[in-house]
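Note to self: keep these together.
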Amino acid sequence: MRTVRVWKQVLGLQSGVVVEGVDLEDAGAGEQVLVARVRTSRRAGGRCPHCRRRRGRYDAGGGVRRWRGLDLGSTRVFVEAAAPRVRCRVHGVVVAAVPWARHDSPFTTGFEDQAAWLTAHAPATTVAELLRSSWRAVMGMVARVVAEAAARADRLSGLRRIGIDEKAYRKGQRY
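Structure:
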């Protein structure tokens, strides 16, 4: 097995991602972080994050960005890549979608999913401490995961009948 495939598996990156290199960097205070430099494949790149359609490149965007990934033991992990912007006919100029993270998120999808699962079973402050993040960031992750899940599921599918017990239009009505 090639080293690149091992890193993709360890970092939880799916198809559409090309790993260009992995380095250990000094983060100060004697701590080192793992930084994986990646890029989107030609097939997966240049898409609008909202409609997921392939769109033309607008510019280089803000340059290189970092997304916080799942820790490897006690080592923090970051995924680093260029973040170009695309021009969508419907949504305007937006940062191109990346396969490893949700739109407008500084965290990878795996990191956010883990934070949301942990938050369902523990207080958000505990989850923030465990993930070495802030309470506000954890709540933002939960909101993104819940919004994505709600968009995928139709809560009224399979509904056949609605029963109405009572109705009231004004205050003080008697039955």
